[in-house]
Amino acid sequence: MTNHWVDIKNADVILIMGGNAAEAHPCGFKWVTEAKEHNKAHFMVVDPRFNRSASVADFYAPIRSGSDIVFLGGVINYLLTNDRIHHEYVKNYTDFSFIVREDFAFDEGIFSGYNPEKRTYDKASWDYELGEDGFVKVDPTLEHPRCVYQWLKKHYAGYTPEKVESICGTPKEKFLHVCEKLASTAEAGRVATILYALGWTQHTTGAQILRTGAMIQLLLGNIGIAGGGMNALRGHSNIQGLTDLGILSASLPGYLTLPNEAEQDYNQYIATRTPKLLRPGQMNYWSNTPKFHVSLMKAWWGAAATAENNWAFDYLPKLDKQYDMLQIFEMMTQGKVNGYIAQGFNPLAALANSNSVREGLKKLKFLVIMDPLVTETSEFWKNHGEFNDVDSASIQTEVFRLPTTCFAEEDGAVVSSSRVLQWHWKAAEPPGEAKTDIAIMSGLHLRLKALYQKEGGKFSEPITNLYWPYAEADHPSSEEVAKEYNGRALVDLFDPKDPTKLIRKAGEQLAGFGEMRDDGTTLGGCWIWAGSWTSSGNQMARRDNSDPTGIGNTLNWAWAWPANRRVLYNRASCDRQGKPFNPERVLIKWNGKQWGGADVPDVAVGLDPEVINPFIMNPEGVARLFARKGMAEGPFPTHYEAFDNPLGYNPMYPNNKQAVISPVMRILATAKDTQGDPKDYPHVGTTYRLTEHFHYWTKHVQLNNIVQPEQFVEIGEALGKELGIETGQKVKVSSKRGFVKAVAVVTKRIKPMKIDGKTIHHVGVPIHWGFSTTGRKGYLANNLTASVGDGNSLTPESKTFLVKVEKI
Ligand SMILES: Nc1nc2c(c(=O)[nH]1)N[C@H]1C(S)=C(S)[C@@H](COP(=O)(O)OP(=O)(O)OC[C@H]3O[C@@H](n4cnc5c(=O)[nH]c(N)nc54)[C@H](O)[C@@H]3O)O[C@H]1N2
Ligand SMILES: Nc1nc2c(c(=O)[nH]1)N[C@H]1C(S)=C(S)[C@@H](COP(=O)(O)OP(=O)(O)OC[C@H]3O[C@@H](n4cnc5c(=O)[nH]c(N)nc54)[C@H](O)[C@@H]3O)O[C@H]1N2
Ligand SMILES: [Mo]
Questions:
Q1: Residue 20: which of 168, 199, 169 has the closest Cα?
Q2: 409 and 478 in contact (C-beta within 8 Å)?
Q3: What residue ranges line ligand 2, CB within 6 angstroms?
Q4: What's the CATH number where 134 sits?
Q5: Any idea which ligand is nearest the CA of 796?
Q6: Which domain covers residue 802, as residue numbers?
């Protein structure tokens, strides 16, 4: 979230699109209710189903699953053609006036630089035009035909209300209602928030859907504003912490990135991560990368990370590809993986295309499961009749189960969607042989280290030299690990401006990332978390919820990254002179001498408010409507159909076969020949959650099984009538990849849509069933989905696929 849960109460307009917060985030959803009650907020839901959130909304509009970019592109078109944008904000704080390179082009769904054989882009032309001084050329009059504003207008001109109706199935007047309500927040005194989750992310165009939402918020001047923002309602408890810590294949902690295969040279690696300024007088925060990177290397390898060995740069893997889960499971099916550790992860149930995942698991030599529970993955080798019909005797994979504790059985911090790190305390002793994840991982590490030390081995230094300064080597405490993330001084640190002034004594905790150094004198495991455990103690354990201004920021409750800031980019809530756009909801303001207010100011260096623009993480200082080379599909979000799609062509660019599906969609070998044909699979399937279950584990809990006892699928009344299916009857739902059998719920909540003249029905498949359960067994929803992913995030397309429904 750019903002935070409580801040939703400050919104005038709320759009939930691509999420169902009333169902999946019922506790945080109360802030939507607060906004409605105390702020008369207008609350809108756009979803293929009239879902639980829609049932308490002021307004609901249907949309065909997989078509959100048409809808949101249509909103951009509406805002630009009707001139409903926040002019001052857009002019000063975005790249509206920046000029784009002359060789950048777009034609019928494809940008310049496309190689159809390799399905990749050469992104060279996707850039601003630079002057001789190295800075981007701008045209403040906005008349230059290649300025971002003119490009935007041109790119979205075809995204008309009529197109939205015919491609998304959203009636034109409903679409225009959403446009009008969002547009009402272009004025400084009003603000809209956008709340989203998997209905946006789990598409092969997912990352671009989110971008389109963010572009709308920028045009409206709603980023950095109380009650505004782009707010990802995150999933698992602490999944925010997972991304913060970089537990993704290509990431390092704090959104630093691993080198790729071509980056063998340390200086080159650092140089590409410390970009040059693109506009005069700006400040690019990533220029601090070496301080964060070196502090991280010191945390991992201690004395073994030296200036001479480039701070152990050679110890980092250099990636030849992104080893995300789709990739690993593809390699597994090809017999290229010996062993796999599933830690708190149930891939057989969770990952797309379960049948292919199972084939991969069968080819492993060994599989380690770290989980408090038995899972489908830990039992993949066991015959469960129709639900997991395998021949156990033929499976050679050796499976080890290492029982872990769960969160209530250990101390630690959980990071919420709000970026708030909140400490919690152990409530119970673990049962049986269960050990904490830290103890298990430490045990593995120490044994591997001992083996390498005894027997030697190729390039063992990254393991044998790992810095391990914990009191009990086989069980570091949560406190020790948390303090390491924050960082500490390794020697006495003096003020760079006044070398006689001591700021930190050797061993002392750092106060924030501003104290990190690139000369090996500081250590810190996750720079964005610096400040969470300072010399005055554990900031995450703070529990003072006082809120002097009433805006909801509670700066003394736990601790938020970065720097305890509650609303990111809050500098953008004020004009260039530092005067709040909305004097009624002040986050920060400039009093002529300094910044102050209800939040930690997001300003770079010095206090001159007129010089440095608010988006200091970009070398141009402003937010990008033109994404330059940042996205795989192109600088402007563009509509493509899903891998499985009901039309077989792209109704936005009907004359171009290259642009039917995303031209850079990740299509795994395991997805080959698995694309569904609408002739065989005419309905649009989607998967989702129910409040009463949490993924695949609450089916071990009797109470949850009582309230939600049996697997079901939802179809609309029209489809029910067409197929002669009534509520309570058993149906089979199949895709090109597999099938599920379940009880039908025939509902008014799903209505047929007319898409480019063709009638389309949606079929809803809740995800929670499987065969490892103390309740009734069911089929894995992911029997239906394909091994394809978004070209940027590699997220599987769980939200749109083609199915056929039959009565059994
Ligand atoms: N009770 C409960 N709560 C949970 C979870 C749980 O398992 N149980 N899981 C947690 C996790 S890990 C996560 S990630 C979150 C997920 O939170 P959400 O994303 O809110 O949950 P979902 O139910 O997966 O999907 C949300 C909505 O997306 C809609 N949708 C499908 N396709 C499209 C589309 O193309 N466009 C639009 N606009 N909408 C579409 C679906 O109809 C559904 O209403 O929930 C978290 N909360
Ligand atoms: N078709 C379809 N597929 C989906 C989705 C969808 O909407 N549709 N949603 C996707 C999303 S957003 C998610 S997040 C995934 C969820 O997929 P998973 O994360 O694989 O599902 P969970 O059942 O939550 O599995 C987490 C496991 O962690 C264990 N666990 C709990 N606490 C601890 C602990 O402290 N330590 C360890 N080691 N283990 C612990 C639990 O017992 C559980 O077995 O599913 C994804 N798959
Ligand atoms: Mo999730």
A1: 199
A2: no
A3: 198, 202, 235-236, 343-346, 350, 370-373, 375, 404-407, 437, 687, 695-697, 767, 781-782, 785, 798
A4: 3.40.228.10
A5: 2
A6: 666-807
